[in-house]
Design goal:
255 residues; alpha/beta; four-stranded mixed beta sheet; 5 helices
Length: 255
C-alpha cells in the first residue's frame, strides 16, 4: 500500500530503537561495560524508566523498563494514549529482554496531519500525544508521539525540543553511528510498515514471522561486542553480514 499520488510523501528517518530490559540500572552498567556512554533520560535517575545511547547525529538506542503492573494496564493506557497503545505497553512488559520497538521521526508540525493521512490509507493511529521529560541536568525535553493501532508496527515521534544529540559523545568501543536497522516484517504488516516508514534510509526490511527489530549495525566498532552485556540486543559492526534474511519479494529496502 502506498500513499495516493496526489499526496506528497513525507520523508521519514529512524529516531530510536527501543531495547526492553528488566533492570534499568543493571542494563546501564552492562552497556557501559560494553563500551557505550549511556545517559539516563529522566530525573531522578534512581526512578528513571529510560536511558539513551546517543550518537552525534542520527538514530539512537533507548534502554527502557516498564512500571510495576504495566502488564495489566492495557485499558488505562488506551484511554490515555489512544487505542492500540495499551497492547504495545503490555507487550513491552511481558516480553523478554531485547529489541521491543522502533520509533520513526516526523516533524512536530506534521505529526497530526501524518496520523490523519495514515488513517485514510488504512493505518489507523492514536492521537498525537504531547509529552515532557525532566532531564537529570534539570532541563526539560518536549516531544510528541502517536502509536499505530497495530501493536507491532513502528510508531511516530517528533524530535526532542530542544535537540538532545550531544556533539561531543565518544564511545570507548568506537561506535560512531547507527548505519542500519534491520526490521523483520510479517508479510501481512508490510503495506502498513512501508506506509509508515516511507523512505527511511537506515531501514532494511526483511521477511519474518513476527514484525520487530532483528539487528542494529554500528559504524566504528573496534571489536565485536560481548552479547552477554547487551541484554538481548543484536549489535553488529556496520560491515558485518546481516542476520540471514528472507527478503520481501518487492525488495529489501523501504523504497
Amino acid at each position: 500500500m502506498t500513499a495516493p499520488a496526489s499526496r506528497p510523501s513525507v520523508s521519514r528517518r529512524c529516531s530510536h530503537v527501543l531495547i526492553r530490559v528488566h533492570d534499568l540500572p543493571g542494563a546501564v552498567d552492562s552497556f557501559r561495560a560494553a563500551g557505550f556512554q549511556v545517559a539516563y533520560a529522566t530525573a531522578p535517575e534512581h526512578k528513571a524508566l529510560h536511558a539513551h545511547v546517543w550518537f552525534p547525529e542520527g538514530p539512537v538506542m533507548e534502554l527502557l523498563t516498564t512500571p510495576p503492573g504495566a502488564r495489566w494496564m492495557r485499558l488505562p493506557v488506551d484511554l490515555r494514549f489512544g487505542r492500540g497503545a495499551g497492547e504495545r505497553m503490555v507487550r513491552w512488559a511481558r516480553q523478554d529482554e531485547g529489541f521491543c520497538d522502533l520509533a520513526l521521526l516526523v516533524e512536530h508540525s506534521e505529526l497530526a496531519a501524518a496520523t490523519g493521512e495514515l488513517a485514510e490509507d488504512g493505518v489507523p493511529c492514536g492521537r498525537a500525544v504531547p509529552w515532557t521529560r525532566r532531564r537529570p541536568d534539570g532541563g526539560t525535553a518536549r516531544f510528541a508521539f502517536s502509536y499505530p493501532r497495530g501493536g507491532r508496527l513502528p510508531f511516530l515521534v517528533t524530535p526532542y525540543d530542544p535537540p538532545q544529540h550531544p556533539a561531543g559523545v565518544r564511545h570507548p568501543n568506537g561506535a560512531q553511528a547507527i548505519t542500519r536497522v534491520v526490521l523483520g516484517v510479517r508479510p501481512a504488516d508490510l503495506p502498513a510498515v512501508r506506509r509508515l516508514a516511507d523512505d527511511a534510509p537506515e531501514l532494511l526490511l526483511e521477511e519474518a514471522p513476527v514484525t520487530g527489530v532483528r539487528a542494529v549495525h554500528l559504524a566504528g566498532l573496534t571489536d565485536p561486542l560481548d552479547p552477554a552485556l547487551l541484554h538481548g540486543a543484536v549489535l553488529l559492526p556496520a560491515d558485518a553480514t546481516p542476520v540471514p534474511p528472507t527478503t520481501h519479494s518487492k525488495g529489501s529496502s523501504t523504497s
